[in-house]
Amino acid sequence: MSAEAANPVSDAEAAGPDAPGRRRARPRIDLRRLGRAALLGATAGPAARDRLPDAIGHVAEAHRAHHPDADLAVLRRAYVLAESSHRGQFRKSGEPYITHPLAVTLILAELGAETTTLTAALLHDTVEDTEVTLDQVRREFGDEVAYLVDGVTKLEKVDYGAAAEPETFRKMLVATGNDVRVMSIKLADRLHNMRTLGVMRPEKQARIAKVTRDVLIPLAERLGVQALKTELEDLVFAILHPEEYETTRALIAGNTGAGDALAAIAENVSGVLREAGIGAEVLVRPRHFVSVHRVRLKRGELRGSDFGRLLVLVAEDADCYAVLGELHTCFTPVVSEFKDFIAAPKFNLYQSLHTAVAAPDGAVAEVLIRTHRMHKVAEAGVVALGNPYIGPEGGESVEDGERVDPTRPGWLSRLLDWQQSAPDPDTFWTSLRADLAQDHEITVFRTDGGAPGMISLPAGATCVDAAYAEHGEAAHSCLGARVNGRLAPLSTVLHDGDTVQLLLAEDSPSGPSPQWLDHARTPAARIAITGWLQAHPEAARIPAAAPRPPASVTADRRTGSRLRAELPGGPDGAPTPVVRPAGCCTPVPPDEITGFVVRGGSVTVHRTGCASADAMRRLGRDPVTVHWGDTAECRVTLVVESFGRPRLLADLTEAIAAEGVAVVAATVEPPSEQRVRHTYTLQLPDAAGLPALMRAMRDVPGVYDVSRARHPATPQL
To answer: Which residues are catalytic?
Structure first.
């Protein structure tokens, strides 16, 4: 059975404590009352059979609020079947099992789901947990309801063993590709189970929370169902990070004036818009727990206005820009906070204008500006679309013989494509999590023979990914690309709006090299390349370099450290090879090291355990003995993981300079989910100072990890 019990956090805490100015939590279901109502409904006399059972009265009320003309008769029939089939089953909390499908249905009804989705939600566990068959559901409620119920029905562990969970998600995602309402029901099902998870063992709570974090929350984000995503984030936060959760809860509870600070700014904004003749509703929108936690890590000490945002709702798209103009005229705008998701909607249907303004007292308030329709879609995503497959004329929307995808094309179609090439459950499960971890998308334009087209890719994708997204396995013969009209290597990282022309060989017997895996970001590309390399093992083997004479000591110009390599055999008088540290792992004394002879006769030195060194061994290359001589200066690459905030780069640079270390090169990747990755190449006067340097960098506020670089670098041959 899919239902668990008691809440890991209280109902009030799930949406925030009862501090002034915080919105009330979504009304929760009284399980005991519903349990009694369910039992009474089951034992009521014939006179009650023609009316809606009391147990789903709250569902009917929420449904009619969004769909006043909805026919509730089918909901009554679905409830009667669900209640009778689940009768005698109980949740671990002791409540009748029927309370779970009722709760799932209410969540969807409050979001505005249409009747077919609610009917399937009431029945979503019947085929899995009772004697009801899928054919019976199809006979009584039609093909659509049966398809949705089947889509969320788990596969049996007795048949699939340890692969049951990944294969269930595969089945569910394939079903979602044909009808996104399958995933809507699954998200609501997981939300109620997360709300009532407390009676389970801590280790099982953690396991469910991790899957929710890695798979369900990213899927909720991609489908635009923010109302479910934010609550799931808070519940996962409470289970996986209890100390940070308690700190955040206490911080919110201790800032009783937070609502007043935002309310005062909201009143000023309302006055400005009234004077401008713009009809608008200005609301204070409190941040949820995870959002407050992220802002605290980003900004340090919080002010009252940091505990929420202002939401401005208007009637028309043009009014959004009129509101923006008034705010930027009458208040001081924070230009760096402006984003236009109306002109360029997110891939999950989200539309809004984002800005921030400073009040006279210096308080900064973030402002979201959207129409009422945009707000409904922002909260409920694809659920707000009703039946997303019904066209304007009332018939099914079909394009090229297939249902029209109601989501922005890209991630879902890519996922459905690559999962077919991942028959192994472990490969699928790992690739799914990696794919969902890519939370931004780009669009590039291809120009093949004058025929323009679009390719949607995750941020950070390269020409390798574009080749496999466009040509599938034919990309094995890709020779290169033109990016924005210029020849570029396949490792080139693409950016939103780039034009790409992929160059394929007509009859090339060659295929991808192992180094393509270093540049592939999408599961489709990685699975295709790996499959080809496994089928052509000879392509990964390159003859070893000729043996070289023993090397004496040579100083590396970059590090100033003296490295010694001992090579077997070779004629006397042969030139001494150059010995240099590998750029992928930048070894420094006293690291354990190993070396390999590469083209040109030089020796590259890797840290023991480096991925590139392991790859060289797999290619059949024999390591040579290397060891450190006298140490002096050294060069090292460090990777810094941090939460974004103002002056972070300056503070890190100051910390590095205070240790007497020179910055040779630095790169900063674009922020992702408020997280920033910095890569520094540093020149140290002495390798012994490296631990102190890393400690000093970790002490910079906002930094949560500093590590030595271990890039999956290409083996040098």
So the answer is: 128-129
